[in-house]
Amino acid sequence: MAITAQKLKMFGYVVVIPLVLAFIIFVLISNALGLDLLPIPFLDLSVQDPAKEELEVIVAEKEEEIKSLESSVSLLSERYDELKESQNAKAKELELWEQDLKELEEQLVEKEEMLNDKKVRIETIADKYSNMRTRDAAAILQELDDDEIIAIFKFMDSDTVSDILSSFEPSRAASITKNMM
């Protein structure tokens, strides 16, 4: 089958020329709409809109503002993290201080109980010496040191104390009296 020149010519008129014209029309319309699929330098159909330029400037400014705000947010986030870490460290430190305080309070309670027990024992001893004859109480108390005697005297009435002190040697009675002041 031989293709004749007339068939080729017919093919060109029916298929090729309409396709070329359709392509040219498509490119012109796309350039007019600003799509620039195939830029044609001598044919610039796009219309410059001053409002569009203003909007582009505003958009650029807003994008810069957004970048600035994102930077600020980043810095604030870092500062927040630092403060959070500091707060956690302070919370741990406070917890340790509270533990120390609790231990000290427990020790204080123990010492108060010991002092109360000692006070009760001294009161009991003072009561027993108060019920003894003065000479017998003085003879026993002279064997104790001055601080122990003074602790016992604190729980005795003044008449009993003076009677017992009068039974001591004068220098010892004077020493105890000085320490009681």
TrEMBL record:
Keyword field: Coiled coil, Membrane, Transmembrane, Transmembrane helix
Sequence intervals crossing the membrane: 12-33
Domain Magnesium transporter MgtE intracellular: 99-180
Coiled coil: 52-121
InterPro entries: Mg_transptr_MgtE_intracell_dom, MgtE_N_sf
Protein name, per record: Magnesium transporter MgtE intracellular domain-containing protein
Native species: Proteinivorax hydrogeniformans
